[in-house]
Amino acid sequence: MRNRAWRRKQNHLKEEKAYRKLTQTSWWFMQYTKEEKLIEARKQAKTLRDHMKSCSCFMCGNARRHWNQKTLQEIKFEDIVKSQDTE
Hints:
Blueprint: H1 4-24, H2 34-48, H3 63-67, H4 72-86
Helix pairs in contact: 1-2
C-alpha cells in the first residue's frame, strides 16, 4: 500500500536527483561560498523537485497567456473537428 511514508521517500528521491543536477551545473550560483552553494542548492532542489522548471517566461509559458494565441493542443483539436465535419 502506498502511504505517507512512501510519498515522503519518493519526494526525497526527487529532491536528491534535483540536488545532483543543480550541483553539477553550478554556474548559476557562483557568487556564493562553498557552504552557501550547498545550502542554496538544497533550497532550490526542494522547490524544483517535481518538475525541474524554475522559469515561467514567455518562451516556456502558455501561448494563450502571452500572445493571445491558441495552444498547440487547441489547434490540433480544431483540425480534428474540421476533418470530422467534412466527412
